[in-house]
Specification:
Chain B: InterPro entries: AAA+_ATPase, ABC_transporter-like_ATP-bd, ABC_transporter-like_CS, P-loop_NTPase. The complex is a heterodimer of chains A (320) and B (285). With 320 residues, chain A is mainly alpha-helical. Chain A is built from 15 helices and 2 strands. Chain A starts with a helix and ends in a 5-residue tail after the last helix. The mean pLDDT of chain A is 86. In chain B, 32% of the residues lie in helices and 27% in strands. Chain B has a 6-stranded mixed beta sheet, sandwiched between helices. Chain B has a 4-stranded antiparallel beta sheet with strand order 2-1-4-5, covered by helices on one side. Chain B has a two-stranded antiparallel sheet with strand order 11-12. The C terminus of chain B is likely disordered. Classes of the chains: A mainly alpha (320), B alpha/beta (285). Chains A and B meet through helix 10 and helix 11 of A and helix 2 and strand 6 of B.
Amino acid sequence: MIVAISIGAVTVPLGDVWGIVWHHVTGQGAAGDLATDQIVWNFRTPRVVLAALVGAGLAVSGAVLQTVVSNPLADPIVLGFSYGATLGAVLVITLGGGVALAGLGVSAAAFLGAVAAGALVFALGRRNGRMAPTRLVLAGVAVGYVFLSATSYVQLQATPTELRTVMFWMLGSVAGAQWDQLPPVTVVVLAGTALLTLFGRRLNVLLAGDDSATALGVDVNRLRAVLLVLSALLTGTVIAVAGSIGFVGLMIPHLVRLTLGADHRRLLPLTALLGALYLVLVDLLSRTLDRPNELPLGILTALLGAPFFLWLLRRNRGLD
Amino acid sequence: MKLTVDRLHITLDRSPILHDVCLEARKGDIVGLVGPNGSGKSTLLRAIYRSLRPAQGVVRVGDDDVWALSARTAARRTAAVLQDATGNTTGLTVTEIVALGRAPHHGLLGRDGAEDHRAVEDAIDRCGVRPYADRDYASLSGGERQRVLLARALAQDPQLLVLDELTNHLDIRARFELLDLIRATGVTTLAVLHDLDLAARLCDHLVVLHEGAVVTAGPVLDVLSPALLADVFGVRAHAGQHADGVVRITYAAQPLARGGGEEPGPVARDGTGAEEGRTVGTGDR
């Protein structure tokens, strides 16, 4: 992370970065000159921290969702959460003042959109109190399409400038990170990951299939409901601040499963860690590959990760 | 622990599946649940391991109604090995699968202790899955998987075992080994079995389910009469105890014609089917 903070449009020596971060965290040592301090502490550090939190949050909710709906393709996008968030964000961006009447910023609207999508999937995926995995996935996909259609329609009404903002938002970015955004996101991601890890043993049991899980003492429907709510909140929070970033939620969990095993009590913390590292790295590349311009994260997450993932898939025999 | 099923009625999507089912297994008994496809065997098991709530009637394990217990408490008494139990288990190792059996012994904050470790290792040894304990469950053969799932059930430390077609898809030797394993546990067992020979080999008592109702129940040889085999299973056959003490069933070359004028519903003991059955199977009884 220190390396990621030091590199950018202006490269700051690693030692200086360390010094500045140390100064701010502990209040000891020298702060360095004002411009460098500004770059390191006010721009880069929150940005890197936010990238780590977003990567962790997306990866953890992807891992949980894949187990909750027993489908390896599941992630916040497949279940419609991301499209819900996108609609919320796009509405605020294009209608601007109109929607801001409720004091809604882009982030708040995106969060509400994701949670609304989660609630819809939850409601539509239920029948007679049962939440069958297949029904949940299909409900998620259908809800996603509805939100996507609505988003497309809203975009048609947008001006070119708004469209550009929309597009940048949809591809995701942590460029605008500020310190005051971080506390809520930190709390949600850390608490969410910790809480979901506590459910690790029950998530393992869920892998055995619904009837067997019931015979192992797990109330399958209640567990699904709780996990769905938690992961919708987690996803909604990180998408709200960073936009809709694909791939991380889908691939990072699989990467950990394929290399380090599928026991959720280990899987979830490791997934969080790897997701965090991955997004910090991707963000670093996004602002250095085409200096001083920045690429959206959504482009790079898949471009970098997919080849490695495909290589891993070919190497692994457990999937045959 | 003893199992008591008392006047159970189950309805699925408004159509009745089980009707007035009563059944009892005393502590340590091995009871076989047999019947043709669609007779309601698996549904009855689901009510016992608390996956399907009955419309009426009671399932007691020990002295308690399982539906009055929490899911977790009930699972500390009853373990199940089910047909479609494989699920999406990609990635878990055999030991991790067996360890799932410890889940009902822990709350959200519970961590694995020495007792859990001992129960898991013990189950692994008893079921002979030690040689592949570290392998990916998904890479195992059918027979190996069944042993692993039985080990998971034993790790649960149950007082009642519920088995649904445990021996399906296994070769004959693996079947016999699995039956021995179940006998050796000494745990009260209710086992659904399609293969009547295996049922006769494993069980002390049989309960015959037909079209959602119990037709008859009792010691193996009493139950498997030629009349019953004809009425319920539609085959001419007879069961006899051989010199080695094993009950074997001899089947005639042709099954009985389907629906030959018999009324659907409760078995007609004096029906024509029964008569034909008797002509084949009177031999050594």
